[in-house]
Specification:
The protein has a single domain (3-245), classed as UDP-N-acetylmuramoyl-L-alanine:D-glutamate ligase. It is 35% helix and 20% strand. The chain contains eight helices and nine strands. Strands 3-2-1-4-5-6-7-8-9 form a nine-stranded mixed β-sheet, with helices on both faces. The longest helix is centred in the last third of the chain and has 17 residues, at 225-241.
Length: 264
Amino acid sequence: MAIALTIAGSDSGGGAGIQADLKAFSALGVYGASVVTAITAQNTRAVTMVEQVSPAMIAAQIDAVLDDLDVAAVKIGMLGTVAATMAVADALKGRGLPVVLDPVMVAKSGDPLIDPDAVAALRDHLLPLATVLTPNLPEAARLLGRETARDGHEAESQGRALHAMGPSWVLMKGGHADGATCTDRLIGPSRHDFTAPRIATRNTHGTGCSLSSAITAGLALGQTVPEAVGAAHEWLQGAIAAADGLRVGSGHGPVHHFHRWWQP
């Protein structure tokens, strides 16, 4: 059984974070283990409270999972603080596992999910461990200290700058860009574009978490990075297309992780 581990925050609304990660793993045929880094009081409209898990407990969870389960790939999501970031970096260093790093900074509702000083810690200590870094355009700009990319040329330039910081691959997600199509740019030893029509829906809560977890599932199943990204991109398009049918919450609802298996 392929096993993947998610290290991320909990979303009480079930649309993002640990909950979305485990749904994505399961939908793609991978067993999911989890390490909780923070607890959020969250729904489709807002994040009303965040409580961090202690760094010692984060490290203990990682050690407990990796000492017993044959984990084939790791996804890292919301960390929130310098202490949490360092705990994860220290616990994973030297493990030799494929790591998909989703640099979560802001919830879909616009609420911040990371301390300002934790951005530098993430950049300095986790980017070099990443097999795949999956920033959206605002996250990429913040990691680099630049303005958000305004077009495909700037997005590719920022992706190459992030690649130079240590990740083996950088997937510059195009969800925040304008236009009738959405293009994700994979930059690394080779160059790949993944393009799809932009779907008109407000129900995109957890798309970033779900995409990075789907990539992690692919890596756990033995796919190459371009193969895993391509399969995850196709699966997520289906999940977004089916999202309106779920009718969950009154704000930004979740995508439909199990669209291949059942419809409401």
